[in-house]
Amino acid sequence: MAEVLAWWRALACMVFAALAAPALATAISVRDDRGQELRLAQPPARIVSLLPALTETVCALGQCHRLVAVDRYSNWPEAVQRLPRMGGGLDFNLESVVAQRPDLVLMAGSARGGERLQALGIAVLTLEPRSHADVQWVISTLAQALGLDDSTGQRLWQQIDAGVSAAAQSLPAQLRGRKVYVEVSPAPHGASESSFIGQTLTRLGQVNILAAKLGPFPKIQPEFVVLAQPDVIMVGDSSRQAMLQRPGWSQLKALQAGRVCAFEPAQAEVLVRPGPRMAEAAQLMAQCLQRVAAAP
Predict the structure, then answer these.
(1) Tens-place pLDDT, residues 174-204
(2) Helix ranges restricted to H, 79-145
(3) Contact indicator for 79, 101 with CB cutoff of 8 Å
(4) Peptide bond into 188 cis (omega under 30)
(5) What is the per-residue pLDDT across 37-80, written as a single tens digit (0 to 9) for each?
(6) Residues of the chain above pLDDT 70, percent
(7) Where in the chain is the domain with CATH 3.40.50.1980?
(8) Under 8 Å between Cβ of 255 and 243
């Protein structure tokens, strides 16, 4: 009799383990930019993304359908343009986010309000990529948070990396080694060697006039650019007129010779978003370098 009871107990344990295994398999644990651990009982089905780069990455991972709302700047791919807007990524409307009943909110570490959301019991994952390595890590972390297998994130990063390499290979040797200034906002803020934009520029064989020690996106004095005399200037279209008003910039040889690429708004967005469209950004930069090559 004792042997029969022992057999039934063993069988019951096996059945319980078999039933529990799927639930345990869906449990998720990831760490964000702050080093905080996020635990999810199952893959999130209702996601609010408050950073365009994160929105684009979720969609590039094939999970656009899980997004229920985004920030006002998220506009790619086209599918997200129909989603409710929660305000700016840094100053989002907390009540609107809560009303979406999300089981995960994605946001930048520099954004305000994350702690208030967590206090309301909403899971928050803060990710703010600034370099190529950050982008790779964010893709892997998001894939894990979404309950996807490791290979999904790896394939996406490999596609991005291969695209950047292809853009670099498209440039002939004589177009390498030019001094370049990339402006990301009219403040002006530039993209240094340590930023994802600067790292792409380096892979294209160019010399960034803003050193890594300045931080990824330093605010600079206009006179600094005049002294550096870049061979090529890359800016968003919004900076085109502002440049002409800056002290000494009329003396920039790049401006005088027309070695300036002023990207239209849609292109500028591609350049400044660290995510799945970085290969496209590299192509835009390579095309710029080729376009101004004929200038003296």
Answers:
(1) 999 999 999 999 889 999 999 999 999 999 9
(2) 94-99, 114-119, 132-145
(3) no
(4) yes
(5) 999 999 999 999 999 999 999 999 999 999 999 999 999 999 99
(6) 91
(7) 28-148, 172-294
(8) yes
**Is the bond into 186 cis (omega within 30 degrees of 0)?**
no
DSSP-assigned letter for residue 84: P
pLDDT at 280: 98
**Amino acid (1-letter code) at residue 155:** R
Distance between CA atoms of residues 85 and 92, nearest Å: 9
Identify the sign of the CA torsion 106, 111, 112, 115: positive
Kind of pairing, strands 179-185 and 189-190? antiparallel
- Which token pair is 108? 């930048």
Q: Are the C-beta atoms of 235 and 262 separated by less than 8 Å?
A: yes
Cis preceding-peptide flag for 129 (omega within 30 of 0)? no
CATH, range 28-148 = 3.40.50.1980
Q: Could you identify the residue written with the tokens 């639930």?
A: 23
- Please list the residues that pair with 180 across neighbouring strands: 208, 232
Lookup: tokens for 212: 């890594």
Q: Region 87-94: what's the mean pLDDT?
A: 90
Q: Which residue shows structure tokens 């964000």?
A: 32
In angstroms, how far is the first alpha carbon of the chain from the final one? 97
Pair of tokens at residue 101: 């009943």
Tell whether pTM > 0.85: yes
pLDDT digits (tens, 9 = 90+) for 147-170: 999 899 999 999 999 999 999 999
**Domain made up of 172-294: CATH architecture:** 3-Layer(aba) Sandwich (3.40)
